[in-house]
Amino acid sequence: MRKLPSVLARTLTSATSGSSMLPDMSEVRSRLRDIVGASTNWRDHVQAMQERKALHTLLAKRQEDLPPRRMKDSYLEVILPLGSQPEIREKYLNVHNSVRFGRILEDLDSLGVLICYTHTKQEMQPRSPLSIVTALVDKINLCKKIIYPDCDIKFTGNVSWVGRTSMEVKMHMLQLHDGDYSPVLDATFVMVARDPENKRPAFVNPLVPETPAEEEIFKQGELNKLKRIDFSTASLLKMAPTAEERNIVHDIFLNTLDTRTVSFRSRKLPPNSVWMEDAKLKGLQICHPQERNIFNRIFGGFLMRKAFELGWATACSYGGSRPFIVSVDDIMFQRPVEVGSLLLLSGQVCYTEKNYIQVRVHSEVYDADTREQQTTNIFHFTFISENEVPRVVPKTYGESMLYLDGKRHFAATMKEI
Q: For residue 134, how many other CB atoms are within 10 A of its CB?
């Protein structure tokens, strides 16, 4: 686990020392509503968004006009009091008597946005002219298989890198055991700032590292950006597979030919294998106002929770035993999901190795008027099963590309854990 540089703990409330005095997630969401002027009543959302238009005059014309910030300026600590407040446990509890990871994804998303608003806060200005939204979940790596439902959880985080209109946020989750907080996961999110109406990019305060350790963290943020560009450039939707990957696909093809016939069409499933077309699950979600964010679109954390739960179910039905999440990788928010949308989710096992299962969840919205579907998100989850799992085998060229894409994501995850 990488450690944050020594920073001054800053909380939503006045400076405190005990974890019992730290803000909780309900305070985080309440603070976000106050910052943007969001209403808790759905019927008031149009008026609230109209009022935000007046904030356009507060936007900076250039990034150079904004005061630079330090990493410690955006540092926050937030408590999830599962141990000290038993009444909130049921919301986070799963059937295996551990914490629902989908709920943790929701909390990370809310905290990441608040950290960015803390970084961009204007003195003497309670309302922010910025609309800050999640653009990408770069990576979430877990170092614990089980999150306990009766022990307090602490989230910490700060802005670690800044572009002109985007911010990288590093967050850490720890859980209390025997009086000490031990690490559970590290998360890296990328947020983007837009104007009050959430239509155009907006400038954010530059970030100035103060110590060698902070300079290293900032450099890593720049490297992460370059890696994302390289990964996108080499996407199998844009570029042909490498020579090694083409050999892998052809070997799979040869291993699945029916030797009794001389035909390209006659295929035979090898022992202890499953055709990829038989390793998927689908789901449908009606997006109600209850799941809206502070900008009256569907909350990104809710989308992540639903995608994770379908991904988990896909891995569970495939492996035949309880899977544990190892890593969340490269979640790109391609377009917002409007309230009232029909959200179609498709979970696909796309790569397996020993007892690891790589699952890709594709989400799209269906427009009942035009009968068109548009992709909103692609999610990548790495699970580990209690037992070794069958090998997933692609049959078509399209499935082979999914297989290679899953293999790439799995290899990237294994490098970091």
A: 24
Would you say 63 and 204 are in contact if contact means Cβ atoms under 8 Å apart?
A: yes
Q: What is the mean pLDDT of residues 244-269?
A: 88
Distance CA 61, CA 139 (A): 32
DSSP state of 338: B
Retrieve residue 384's tokens.
């580990």
Rg (Cα) of the chain, in Å, rounded?
Answer: 23
Helix (H) or strand (E) segment spanning residue 206: none
How large is the angle between the packed helices 300-319 and 101-119, nearest 10 degrees?
Answer: 150
Give yes or no for residue 307 having a pLDDT over 90: yes
Give the total residue count for the chain.
417
Token reading at 256 = 């699945």
For strands 180-194 and 166-177, give the pairing: antiparallel
- Which residue matches tokens 């009794």? 260
Alpha-carbon gap, residue 284 to 411, rounded angstroms: 30
pLDDT (0 to 100) of residue 269 = 93
Query: pLDDT tier at 191 (50, 70, 90 boundaries)?
Result: very high
Distance CA 132, CA 150 (A): 33
What mean pLDDT comes out for the span 48-68? 87
Query: What DSSP line would sit under 225-246, residue for residue?
Result: HHHHHHHHHT-TTTSPPPHHHH
Q: Cα(333)–Cα(304) distance, rounded to whole angstroms?
A: 10
Residue 302: exposure state from Cβ atoms within 10 A (0-12, 13-18, ≥19): buried
> What's the pLDDT at 3?
43
Q: At what angle do helices 25-36 and 101-119 cross, to 10 degrees?
A: 40
- Torsion, Cα 99 101 105 107, to 10 degrees, reads 0
